[in-house]
Design a protein that fits this description.
This protein is α/β, with parallel strands linked by helices. It has 2 domains: 227 residues, Aldolase class I (TIM Barrel); 70 residues. It has 13 helices and 9 strands. Bound molecules: flavin mononucleotide.
C-alpha cells in the first residue's frame, strides 16, 4: 500500500501542529516528529512531554525521530518508544546544519560511513520488537556518499529508507534530484520513500510514476490541502473558511499549550513563511505577519490577511 507522509519540521510540526492539522485536513497517513536529542537517561525530560506521550499522539501513525551519533542513545530512545507503544522510530541522517553535521550528527553521519555503519549494526544488535527507519540525503559533501551505505541498507532490516535527494552542503538550495533518487531504486531492497520539492499534484504525479511512497514537506506546510488534492478527497466546504478555521485553531491550541505565552508567535511566523504562498499577494501577507510581536497584533494580522487576500489554490 502506498503511504503519504509528512516529513518533520523542527519548530513547526510539533504535536500541536500535527493534531490540529489532523482535525482540519485529511490525506496524511503518517507523521514523523521533529528530532529528539539528549536522551541521556531512560526518563530524559524530552521523553516525558506531550510531544511523544501516547496520550497526545496516535502511536500507529506518528513516528518519533532521533538525532544522535551513538548506538547506546539510539537504543535507549528505541526502547522508550517501544514501551510507549510506538511500532517504529526513525534516525535523522539528513540534518544539514553545520553545527549538527560537524559533530557527525544528522547528515554528517553520511560523511563518515565506517563509523556510521558500525553504529547502525550496533543499533540493530541492541533493539528488539520495534521497526527502525532512517531519513537521509544523498550525502553531506557529495551525492555519491550514499553508495557506501547501500550494502548496509540491504543487509540490515531497516523498515524504510527516506531519501531527500540533495546533499547536506546544499542545505535547501537548488532542486532535489529525482534522477539521482531513481538511480537508487533498483539498488536498495528496502521500502524507499521519496522526499523533496513536492509542491503540487503535477510534481507528485511525476514522482509516483516510479515510486509509490512519498513524504511531503514544505509543499504541505504551504498548502495544507495538498494531501487531500493528491488523494482526490472531496470536500465541498469553502477553502478559505477551512484555512481560517485551521489557523485560528492552531493559534488557540498553541496558546493553551504555552500557558498563554507570546513565544508561540515565533513558531507561527515560521509556518506563515510557507503558508503565505497560497495567498494571491504573499508579500502583503508576510508584511502583516513579520512585524507582529504581541498576541493581539497576531490576531489582528490574521483577520486582515483573510479579509484582504484570496487563496490561489
Ligand atoms: C525549518 C526546517 C526544519 C526541519 N526539521 C527537520 C527535522 O526535525 N527532521 C528531519 O528529518 N528533517 C527536517 N527538515 C527537513 C524536512 O523534513 C524535509 O526533508 C525537507 O524540507 C525537504 O523536503 P521538502 O522539499 O518537501 O520540503 C527540516 C526542514 C526545515 C526547512
Amino acid at each position: 500500500m502506498e503511504t503519504l507522509s509528512l516529513a518533520p519540521f523542527q519548530g513547526i510540526t510539533d504535536v500541536v501542529y500535527r493534531n490540529i492539522f489532523r482535525k482540519h485536513f485529511h490525506g496524511i497517513d503518517k507523521f514523523y516528529t521533529p528530532f529528539f536529542t539528549g536522551i541521556q537517561k531512560d526518563n530524559s525530560k524530552s521523553l516525558r512531554g506531550e510531544e511523544i506521550s501516547p496520550e497526545f499522539n496516535d502511536v500507529n501513525t506518528v513516528v518519533p525521530q532521533i538525532l544522535s551519533n551513538t548506538a547506546d542513545e539510539i537504543i535507549r530512545f528505541a526502547n522508550q518508544c517501544k514501551s510507549m507503544g510506538y511500532p517504529e522510530f526513525n534516525l535523522n541522517m539528513g540534518c544539514p546544519f553545520p553545527r549538527v553535521a560537524n559533530k557527525t550528527r544528522g547528515c554528517g553521519l553520511m560523511a563518515d560511513p565506517t563509523r556510521t555503519i558500525k553504529m547502525l549494526n550496533d543499533v540493530f544488535d541492541g533493539i528488539d520488537g520495534i521497526k527502525f527507519s532512517i531519513k537521509c540525503r544523498l550525502g553531506y559533501y557529495n551525492d555519491e556518499e550514499i553508495y557506501a551505505f547501500i550494502e548496509t541498507f540491504n543487509s540490515l532490516p531497516f523498515s524504510e529508507i527516506i531519501v531527500h535527494p540533495r546533499i547536506g552542503k546544499q542545505m535547501y538550495n537548488g532542486e532535489a534530484s529525482l534522477e539521482k533518487f531513481l538511480e537508487l531504486v533498483p539498488l536498495i531492497n528496502k521500502p524507499l520513500v521519496y522526499n523533496g520539492d513536492i509542491f503540487d499534484v503535477e510534481k507528485y504525479n511525476i514522482v509516483t510514476k516510479s515510486i509509490k511512497n512519498v513524504a511531503l514537506g514544505r509543499g504541505l506546510l504551504t498548502n495544507p490541502f495538498l494531501a487531500e488534492k493528491i488523494k482526490n478527497i472531496d470536500n465541498q466546504q469553502d477553502k478559505k473558511l477551512r484555512l481560517h478555521n485551521f489557523v485560528v485553531d492552531l493559534y488557540i491550541e498553541r496558546l493553551h499549550h504555552a500557558g498563554g505565552s507570546p513565544k508561540i508567535i515565533g513558531s507561527l511566523k515560521e509556518l506563515w513563511k510557507y503558508m503565505m504562498n497560497i495567498f494571491d499577494d504573499p508579500q502583503n501577507v508576510w508584511r502583516k505577519v513579520k512585524k507582529v510581536n504581541h498576541l493581539d497584533e497576531y490576531e489582528d494580522a490574521v483577520e486582515k490577511i483573510f479579509n484582504e487576500n484570496n487563496l490561489i489554490i
